[in-house]
Amino acid sequence: MLLASVLGLLMGLVMGLTGAGGGILGVPALVLGLGLSMTQAAPVSLLAVGAAAAVGAVDGLRHGLVRYRAALLIALLGALFSPVGVYLAHQLPEALLMGLFSALMVLVAWRMLQREKREAGPSDHGTASWGQKNCMLDQQTGRLAWTAKCSATLAALGAVTGAVSGLLGVGGGFLIVPAFKQLTDVQMRGIVATSLMVISLLSLIGVAGALHAGVRIEPVGWVFIGASIVGMLAGRRLCSVIPARALQVGFASLCVVVAAGMLFNALR
């Protein structure tokens, strides 16, 4: 129980310092630290990530940053495809799942190092000209223009995110944020807030799917979840005093090290 508390606290701290993407460390902490299998670790990690993301989503809703219609569409498609990921997770060999997760962590590390500096501003409008992106904001209303192309794009993003979330037990922020940035002209503050809402909804759906498939969360898992929430709250307070670039490099390095540990465990 003590080890679960320490690992949960550390994971939550990283989440608070780096954003919801830090939740990708949940599964390795549970597999390598507590000896759980990938299928056992997935719902525990998802619940911890979802609780942390929900805090950020509520804050985003309070400030009017969440594109809630887009978030609900992505989450709806994610809900339909998440059970597919959960089913595949129970069919694939444990070693293959660990290998896939290791590759995912390396990808997240690379994305973190490539991440551009977030621009703060009073407006939530992006700077693209009309037609440059799949989903564009109406400059008069400030809302997304719901064309067929935009709806199909967000639906496809939801399907992919839901499947990956169910398969590997991750919230999907590492997919949603860069995709939203590439495909829409929403400013970064709105992207992150919308992503957090999707992550919280998808995590809840993924947990429900795993529980329906017969996976049960043990007491040690609940301790991990509780500690991660405490760590996340602490991390949110500390993030303003640590340089952003130092956090990015540190998190990316940690991802690579943990990925190597997961891959070694899979090959063994």
TrEMBL record:
- Membrane-spanning residues where? 30-58, 70-89, 95-113, 191-213, 219-235, 247-267
The record's annotation in InterPro entries points to:
TM_pro_TauE-like, TSUP/Inactive_protease-like
Per UniProt, subcellular location reads as: Cell membrane; Membrane
Keyword annotations of the record: Cell membrane, Membrane, Transmembrane, Transmembrane helix
Main location, first listed in the record:
membrane
Keyword Transport listed? The answer is no
Q: How does the record classify its membrane topology?
A: Multi-pass membrane protein
GO cellular component terms listed in the entry, alphabetical order: plasma membrane
Question: What family does this belong to?
Answer: Belongs to the 4-toluene sulfonate uptake permease (TSUP) (TC 2.A.102) family.
Provide the protein name.
Answer: Probable membrane transporter protein
Which organism encodes this protein? Answer: Pseudomonas azotoformans
